[in-house]
Write a structure and sequence with these properties.
By secondary structure, the protein is α+β, with helices and mostly antiparallel strands. Helices cover 46% and strands 21% of the residues. It has two helices and three strands; from the N terminus they run ββαβα. Helix 1 links the parallel strand 2 and strand 3. The protein is globular, with a radius of gyration of 12 Å.
């Protein structure tokens, strides 16, 4: 993924590799959680325009990220 700060919003562009493996999803989730917790970037715009398929594990990671960003 690529991250770019635009004012108070961080835009995340998801990479193309598909299907996302469980290991990649876990690593991506860990990195995004650090972005929220360590850098305090709670306003996220996630660009999934290049993603054709999202597994339940991927959606779960995004929901955990949403929960973390909302706290």
């Amino acid at each position: 993924w690529r991250a770019a700060d635009v004012g108070a919003v961080t835009r995340l562009t998801m990479p193309r590799p598909e299907p996302y493996s469980d290991e990649l999803i876990a690593a991506l989730g860990d990195e995004l959680a650090l972005l929220v917790r360590e850098r305090g970037r709670h306003r996220l715009l996630i660009d999934m325009g290049r993603v054709d398929y999202a597994s339940s594990a991927f959606l779960g990671m995004l929901l955990r990220l949403l929960r973390d960003a909302s706290e």
